[in-house]
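> forwarded from #structure-qc
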């Protein structure tokens, strides 16, 4: 082979390598382009909708699902749709069981997998993954019990960046403040409720110590020290909430709105209730039930000379008859109350849940909200009605002659701090 032939072969080899390199680069670019959302009108839409079953029409093979965004979607089912039941909290479908449409019920949480049509708000479901309402309720109750047993809640009193510690303060039913110091290490999962929303515990965003502010409401899960002054936390969830209260002046079930006169500003407020809002009622006779924690001290009698009053059958509030009689808040020996050390969060989250139809004009409510753009409107996360006895009890503890010695002078944030978190656990 002469020098010319060798040179020609080397040139052809280099040319082929160059061409193959260019083809490879172009191929990778096309793949990346195809995977870019909006790169092509045939790009796949969202792979399904996750939410709660609001209605089910087996004759039409359709279910109505309220997505976590609040939007209603019609899920169309066919003979090819597969149905599976998954346990709450499962990360895969490995242990999911095969079910039928007859096993799906209102209130179940579902993932309707299919190509979503946003203009029509429809989903032709290839597969429907179901978590039953009963299974979800059982799991949430187990988690709530864990947070009650091993958790603390309250208002952030201080944040110490140098020691990486948060101090949380809450008030007991006896009026005594409780403070707990929470060290924040790399082992603590920090999460924050996003602003201007109905916060869901499952959607709390990853956060860090620097985002915690004095006045935030906070809950932490972990192991308490023997004296109860420290908590070695596993998880911390917090948010910047607003607590408001006032007298109900109007109720409109058609629009899910109520109007109140603000307890402190005396200005009218419109309270908007969403499907996720939780309404509770402080029980009738609750003031007498708390008589042992009034200004007269433990064992003080309520109005009419009666001691703590038991509630009627069917009530699941503190002090109710039945098995809960032995739980927190039950009457103790000598007419005192073992629940005097319970904080407001523990008390109020045990109250029975009601609907807007159970509210009455003239009642006093307290509620929590995340700040929105319009200060004259608040979206309720959690609302408690019939709260006058608690407000009167707190006002009576104010120093004699003080301006705050009346219900409208009660500091709602410090008194009820920690009672309102996000929807669901904790």
């Amino acid at each position: 082979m002469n020098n010319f032939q060798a040179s020609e072969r080397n040139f052809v080899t280099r040319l082929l390598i160059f061409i193959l390199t260019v083809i490879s680069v172009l191929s990778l670019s096309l793949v990346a382009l195809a995977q870019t959302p909006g790169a092509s009108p045939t790009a796949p839409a969202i792979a399904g909708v996750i939410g709660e079953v609001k209605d089910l029409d087996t004759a039409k093979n359709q279910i109505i699902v309220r997505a976590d965004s609040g939007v209603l979607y019609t899920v169309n089912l066919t003979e090819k749709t597969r149905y599976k039941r998954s346990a709450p909290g499962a990360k895969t479908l490995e242990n999911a069981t095969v079910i039928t449409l007859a096993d799906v019920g209102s209130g179940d949480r579902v993932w309707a997998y299919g190509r979503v049509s946003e203009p029509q708000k429809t989903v032709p479901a290839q597969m429907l993954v179901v978590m039953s309402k009963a299974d979800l309720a059982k799991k949430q109750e187990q988690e709530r019990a864990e947070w009650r047993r091993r958790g603390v809640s309250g208002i952030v009193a201080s944040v110490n960046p140098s020691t990486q510690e948060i101090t949380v303060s809450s008030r007991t039913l006896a009026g005594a403040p409780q403070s707990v110091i929470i060290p924040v290490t790399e082992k603590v999962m920090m999460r924050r409720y996003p602003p201007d929303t109905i916060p869901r515990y499952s959607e709390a965003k990853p956060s860090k110590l620097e985002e915690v502010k004095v006045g935030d409401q906070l809950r932490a899960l972990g192991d308490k020290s023997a004296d109860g002054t420290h908590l070695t936390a596993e998880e911390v969830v917090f948010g910047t909430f607003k607590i408001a209260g006032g007298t109900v002046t109007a109720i409109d079930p058609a629009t899910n709105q109520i109007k109140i006169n603000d307890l402190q500003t005396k200005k009218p407020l419109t309270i908007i209730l969403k499907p996720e809002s939780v309404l509770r009622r402080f029980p009738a006779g609750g003031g007498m039930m708390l008589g042992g924690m009034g200004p007269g001290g433990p064992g003080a009698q309520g109005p009419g000379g009666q001691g703590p009053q038991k509630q009627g059958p069917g009530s699941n509030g503190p002090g109710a008859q039945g098995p809960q009689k032995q739980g927190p808040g039950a009457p103790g020996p000598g007419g005192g109350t073992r629940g005097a050390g319970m904080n407001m969060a523990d008390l109020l989250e045990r109250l029975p849940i009601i609907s807007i139809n159970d509210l009455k004009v003239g009642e006093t409510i307290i509620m929590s909200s995340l700040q929105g753009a319009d200060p004259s409107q608040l979206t309720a996360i959690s609302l408690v009605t019939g709260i006058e006895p608690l407000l009167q009890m707190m006002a009576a503890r104010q120093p004699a002659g003080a301006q705050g010695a009346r219900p409208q002078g009660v500091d709602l944030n410090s008194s009820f701090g920690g009672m309102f978190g996000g929807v669901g656990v904790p």
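QC bot note: The longest strand covers residues 268-281. The longest helix spans residues 3-34.
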